[in-house]
Amino acid sequence: MKQLVLFLGLLFLTQGLCQNDNNKKKSVSNNQLKRLLILLQIVVEENENSDQSLIPWLKDANEKLRKIHENEAYMEFQYETDINDENAQKLNDAGVKAAEVIKIVVSEARRLLRDNPDVDGDAKRQLQRMALDDTPLDSNLVSQLQKIHSDLESIYAKAVIKKDGKTFRMEPELSQIMAKSRDLDELKWAWQGWRDVTGPQMKNLYKELVRITNTSAVENGYTGGRKETWLLNQFGSTENLKNQFQNLWRELKPMYQLLHAFVRKRLKSFYRNKYPGYIFPDDGTIPAHLLGNMWAQQWNNILDVVKPFPNVKTPDVDTALKHRYPKPKDLFQLAEDFYTSIGLYKMTPKFWNGSMIVRPDDREVQCHASAIKMCTEINKDYLETIHHEMGHIEYFMAYRNQPEVYRDGANCGFHEAIGDTIALSVMTRKHLKTIKLIPNKKSFNEHEMDMNFLMEEALSKVAFLPYGYLIDKWRWDVFSGRIKPEDYNKSWWNMRIHYQGVSPPVSRSEQDFDPGAKFHIPADSPYICYFFQFYETLCKESGHSGPLHTAMLELGASKPWPDTLEMFTGSREINAKSIIQYFRPLMTWLKNQVSENEIGWQDN
Ligand code: ASP
Ligand code: SER
Ligand code: ZN
């Protein structure tokens, strides 16, 4: 490792990293020197690796944790790819068994930290990560909680709308309607129908989940309840986090508002044309069912309505994909090719044989994509998702030699960012030409095509920002008790309106539980990670293929994330500069399309 890091450091000095500007300098900048020094520091720290006496204990504890995590992950995979009572029970048993082992390791780790106040360095970090735990102390509660989790997941996975003898599932039927339909009744039907068959069945279970998890966090000594343990788990510390999120959002908001104003204007004229007399909300919000996505989280599917240059044809990548890569497996291979071409790992035979990449028709499964299961359809959205999920696997493989407590992202945003950053390079017009998904010829209107393309990116990345922020903002308030169960839905819509400027197309009440219509709520899976991706990497250059990046992936969670980030980008804080710069040409164009008084909505 040491030689490797030094070698990489030197290599890095000669390379220059992607800063998303056009004048990449080959000479050694202060910033680069600084980053090399950080690398060297990491090596030195490893050398000085603290208290040797704890090493055998740590080794043993890591191994115990590895085994139970592996077993749990396996049982979870079994359950999610074949949802039935028997598999739920097996998962439950695995959870109870895991909790017993975890409890012992955790209390030992806490004791060792108390008894060895001088312990420092890596041993301390490992102990602290092991001690961080909010598993209920009572094994009946562990089992109860496990059952709530599997019930919630099952409701989401099995939800369907039935109409005229036909069954509409989220994937693929409903997501396709939301993406492609421009029929107001149909969109409203799908939007409302999905919420009717998910949230209401979940509300009481969710309330219980919040109660139990908060209680057990407090029992474990975290006075801030589950909000605290969540943030500690995701970011290693709660210090200054709220401010960082807030600042980031403040920097990003003007860009979102501009996009929102333009999209609203176009949608309004489109639907008024199609449905004379159709009334758009007068508070400046956009009806949530018109944005091409069930949750209004990414808007790329309405590119046809909001394209800057509507007369310039957009290459039909979906059709080209179906033609050139007719099987789901082909898309995975395409993604793997890209990863290996930049020096990352091939998927293993176990991946190819064991993953679920299409929806089986003989059993119930959880279709929401994760690293080793999804219900692939051949289109651009899934191609991006495949890159996203494979990014997780690449990270898993890179940190596989770390002790178990470090087999994780530097923070959870790193984990989410890998695949998306790669996908960004894959989805460029240049690369799509290389892999023959769009015609490889120069057209006379390159500028217009670029602008349309940038709009497509903005519809998926910029539109996503407030959504990525608000889901956990809502959950933190729910966990902390600021939001009471009787206000779950009202508070949800307050945030949807406040941050996203979207409004429900039909009236909502506390009989509804609209957060439950989104996978990550019933799955109890953190969301801020999608917001907190390191935007510094949002660049088109192939800079991220550098060996430095591999070294960063290999570190896993073994260093505090600001260290890892600094080594990677030169900065200890996430900032919005790169994403703003990336979209600047589009934003400049948009500014001329809307007037000041068209920007914003009531309550923003
Ligand atoms: N599992 C990923 C997400 O939830 C990608 C997806 O949405 O399919 O982040
Ligand atoms: N994959 C995440 C989601 O589905 C973020 O895009 O919400
Ligand atoms: Zn992910």
TrEMBL record:
Residues annotated as signal peptide = 1-18
Annotated PANTHER family: ANGIOTENSIN-CONVERTING ENZYME
Q: How is the cofactor bound?
A: Binds 1 zinc ion per subunit.
Q: Where does the source fall among the domains of life?
A: Eukaryota
* SUPFAM superfamilies (alphabetical): Metalloproteases ('zincins'), catalytic domain
**Recorded family membership:** Belongs to the peptidase M2 family.
List the Gene3D superfamilies.
1.10.1370.30
Name of protein:
Angiotensin-converting enzyme
